[in-house]
Prior knowledge:
The chain is α/β, with parallel strands linked by helices and 339 residues long. The protein is 27% helix and 25% strand.
Amino acid sequence: MKTKAAFLEKPGKIEEKPLKIKELELPELRENEVLIKVNACGVCRTDLHVVEGELGDVNNIVPGHEVVGIIERLGKEVKDKKIGSKVGVAWLYSSCGSCEYCLSGRENLCQNKRFTGFSKNGGYSEYIIADSRFIFNLPAGLKDEEIAPLLCSGAIGYRSFKLLHASPGSTIAMFGFGGSAHLTLQLAKKFGHKVIIVSRNENHLKLASELGADFTFSPKNGNVYENLRDKDIEDAIIFAPSAIPIMNALQIIKPGGKVVVAGIHIDGEIKIDYDSQLFHEKTLLSVESYTREDMLEYLRLATNLDIKPLYTDIKLEDANSALAELKNSEVMGVKVIKF
């Protein structure tokens, strides 16, 4: 069986349009795998990092890991899934299930895990093969295009927010305002927090205000520390793929506060001054993927709290241009490939 896909033979700058539309032969299903007809796949910044080689020299791969589709075939050992069911496929393709991390509920740290659209072909494709143990039943009442971004942009934002253990009603700063941040802002506001958005993109700041941000600030308009040090900021989440916001956030949070870095890749060198940025029991954390428990929690929350992305439909053939727009901070909300 063949599938049409946006295929990456070797990494390259997105301006060179490295994704090529090709017909690929699908392998036979293994015991615990399922064949899924893709309805929608979100375009995520991690895909950009994959395509441009910033996560390693990955060749001959189909990107995409925010996948919504319908199961069409089952591997012979799959007992808990049904043909015709709508499911989601996300970044964590599989983990070993037997290491110290998997056995302690930290499968996202498994050293033998595999990733959709990086280790295994992903959702920039009409069909995808997935491990049935790592796919998700999806909530009713949401469009496929609304669900797809929840499967990474939303889930990573949720894990970042969860790791803050933020005090009720506290103020949280978010640096960068792309796909993940615009969903996490909604979540934080639903939990009663004040949210400050820091971004150099004026259109993104306008959107943040429309979605409920309590205060927005552009570093173009002045020094971050001088303008935000009196805002009573307890914690911060870094969505921008840059070292500079990390250093700014550590400087402006209150004693005992946390800075969580949501990105899988950061440009630049982090230089921390102990006295002004890390002293007073401040904490700097990174996020690596999510656990299946995180995803299930977040999908329930997103449904119950009516958290939805601002999205634009695109065609598979537009994948290169969509990633280029993402690189240039030209996307409002998220873009979703619709099949």
